[in-house]
Specification:
The chain is mainly beta and 367 residues long. It contains four helices and 27 strands. It has a five-stranded mixed sheet with strand order 1-24-23-22-21, with no helix packed on it. It has a four-stranded antiparallel sheet with strand order 2-27-26-25. The protein has a four-stranded antiparallel sheet with strand order 3-4-5-6, with no helix packed on it. It is globular and about 55 Å long.
Length: 367
């Protein structure tokens, strides 16, 4: 009986595979709800948002405190913490912000201090939540690296790098630091540029799946998506690149170096990226900067990839957004929108077709 059931399921999946090969990308229209308007946010100007139980936690760049906790039902501010400044537990700029279900903690990285901190979910409503330093790069002054955002995956800390040494820097559990990854060859953009100038064009944004084993990386000035899978100290990088930075103006800066400047004809590609164990969600622009654009670049198109790098869905939102996060069950998408008139928080409920999940589980869909 079990054998018959398995064969029936297999035939069903193969049939679905044939359908997916004919129509590999499914378009889904989503209508959202403004859950926190600009007037409700007050002086807060969120740039990140995460969902924690029945709360929404935002990071903003304005005001005396950087982190706000909101009730999902009451839609009221429940707490604010982390002062802006240079003190021991004050932050200057939070560059990455992530909710980790495994450790029940929020992780945030201060790009100026080069330190990663965490706050336990259970502390979020305390008068003074305990902010614990988890990790610091402590690099020498003559380091060949210039690190940007840092994330924690498994027991490793991984940062994007903007020097020509490597595209990523990894700190292992034993403290050893190693460089991984290479930037695309400069000849794809302009043979006249230096390798350092070429590296700075690839402004990479990382996101980590809830299982802490997979990292997705997008690029703003190139149509490039990378997938890194943590495998016992190995970090294989899968790269899909369809377009390189275009129409870059080279300006000498002295000592043989130069800076690559964008022009009106330079295209922008990925705006923001989020991940679940099943999918990678990426806000997509794929065109030049709109004339008269103010504030953050927004788009209403979200491309959804599986962890093999194949596109499964295109989500067409009723509003343009510049940041998103998705709950681990792929049911709720929270987003930030900014059309030059103030930032608002949006909520979208999703129900992606189930058969794609079955195909993904059996690794049949993209063979």
């Amino acid at each position: 009986m079990k054998k018959i059931l398995f064969i029936s399921t297999l035939l069903f999946l193969i049939g679905c595979q044939n359908v997916s090969e004919q129509h590999p990308i499914k378009n889904v229209d989503l209508k959202g709800e403004v859950v926190l308007s600009d007037s409700m946010l007050g002086i807060s100007s969120p740039v990140y948002i995460q969902v924690v139980d029945t709360m929404w936690v935002t990071v903003n760049l304005q005001g005396d405190t950087l982190v706000d906790v909101w009730g999902a039902s009451s839609r009221k501010r429940l707490n604010s913490f982390i002062a802006k400044g240079d003190g021991p537990l004050e932050f200057r700029r939070i560059d990455s912000f992530r909710a980790d279900e495994k450790t029940q903690s929020l992780y945030m990285y201060d790009i100026y201090k080069r330190r990663l901190f965490k706050v336990a979910y259970s502390d979020l409503l305390q008068p003074k939540p305990a902010v614990q330093e988890v990790f610091s790069w402590n690099l020498e002054d003559n380091t060949p690296f210039s690190l940007m955002g840092t994330v924690r995956a498994d027991n490793y800390f991984i940062a994007t790098n903007i020097t020509d040494t490597a595209s990523y820097v990894v700190k292992e559990p034993d403290g050893n630091i190693k460089a991984i990854g290479k930037f695309p060859d400069k000849n794809h953009v302009d043979p006249a540029m230096t390798n350092m100038c070429n590296a700075t064009l690839y402004d990479l944004t990382m996101t980590v799946a809830p299982d802490n084993q997979k990292i997705a990386v997008s690029c703003h000035l190139a149509d490039m998506l990378q997938i890194i899978k943590v495998d016992k100290g190995r970090f294989p990088i899968q790269t899909e690149i369809n377009a390189y930075p275009n129409d870059i103006y080279l300006m000498p800066t002295g000592d043989g170096e130069m800076q690559g400047l964008v022009t009106a004809k330079t295209k922008r590609y990925y705006i923001g990226i989020a991940a679940t164990d099943d999918y990678i969600y990426a806000i997509w622009h794929g065109d030049v900067l709109p004339e008269g654009n103010k504030g953050y670049l927004n788009s209403s198109l979200v491309r959804v990839f599986n962890w093999e790098g194949k596109e499964c869905y295109q989500l067409h939102l009723d509003r343009s957004i510049f940041y998103l996060t998705v709950t681990p069950d792929n049911k709720t998408l929270m987003a930030l929108t900014d059309k030059g008139e103030g930032i608002s928080v949006l909520k979208y409920e999703m129900d992606l077709p189930y058969y794609f999940y079955l195909l993904r589980s059996y690794n049949l869909m993209w063979k």
